[in-house]
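Replying to the earlier thread about multi-chain prediction with a worked example.

Input:
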Amino acid sequence: MSAAAEAHHHGPPPIHYSSRIAPPVLGMFLFIASEIMLFGSFFTVYFFDRVAGHGVNGHWPPPGLHRPVFVAFINTLILVTSSGTMHWATTSVKRGNRAGLQAGMALTFLLGLTFLITQIVEYHRIGFNTSDTSFAATFFGLTGLHGAHVFVGLTILLVMTIRAFRGHFSPEHHHGIELGGIYWHFVDIMWIVVFVTVYLL
Amino acid sequence: MKSPFRSEKDAFRFVWLVIGYCVLIVVAYKIDHWLGLAVFLVLTGLALWLGLRGRGERPIRQAPAPSPPDEHRILVVANETVGGPELLAEIRERAGGRTTRLFVVSPALNTPLKTWTSDEDEAREVAQRRLDASLTSMRAVGFDASGEIGDGDPVQAIEDALRTFRPDELIVSTHPPGRSQWLERGVIERARERFALPLTHVVVDLDADRS
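Result:
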């Protein structure tokens, strides 16, 4: 529409024809982009604190603060295993193996719950709090942000597990399992990055 | 760039790639901090290069072609009322003896709870059955009819359909006032506000039709 015609146009705007991208693909791209920005901001704070703060003196984390590396490593193994069981569940539903789907979903949920409970227990025993140092604040910020994602993932897994036991899924129809699985793997990947960054490096 | 989260299988594979990526960085870091940084930069650069290599795969633009001068196109949106005689009569009247092409959108109607829990398989199956039945009845009276299952929100379903089908007008079919959730939600008003197309609202009273 020309500028003159647009100026005299009354009523609703003309229909907008855009390129057609499959909604699930577009949605997943937007979701990943927003998550990268969210976690990226936390990682930026963490690395800035490390480089501009205590890290320059060679003390990281600050003296007196100890990261529970062993427990976090066990938690990492738990979460990676849960990704395996999630994949097993998805493979099972595609093959029409209902028992495999149910066992896979139940195991994934229980492993995820174990991860979250372990993290909460570790928070109580860790010996420092958010207000102690900037390291402590960013530590709780990053791991807590991830913990919130685990909680959301567990909610999704719980719904999918209940639906799996109620016989909702079939080899042809298992969209919920597929999307839940993608989200759970994403949560797993983010934990691996958080674990390496916060606990190992 | 191909998304590593396109499917559960791809995402699971990506988990293992990330583990391998992180293990190499940590091992290098433990040997020497600068070596760790170098491995991080090299691996990240490699991953970006591999990921961006497929950038030529652009989404195909599918702006629909305008209708030929001798063809009239109607976009029909209807729920359970899709097979009603009032709707068919209205389509016949709007067609007015011209060569008419119909595109029927059958929204996958679902409850909010089921939508939030991704439990939409049944809703889509029901919508597909409705769509098949309506296409059959429209073709039986001589119309060139095609269609698709649409979003549960009829206004969104119209917007989605407009990306592949360029109609000359819209027909929205609903239950009578008092029994229509679409009318309760102001679907007709919202559609009139959003789309610059002539819109005809057809009321189909299925109870009266059956009796």
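The domain at 12-200 of chain A is CATH 1.20.120.80 (Four Helix Bundle (Hemerythrin (Met), subunit A)).

Feel free to reuse this layout for your own posts.
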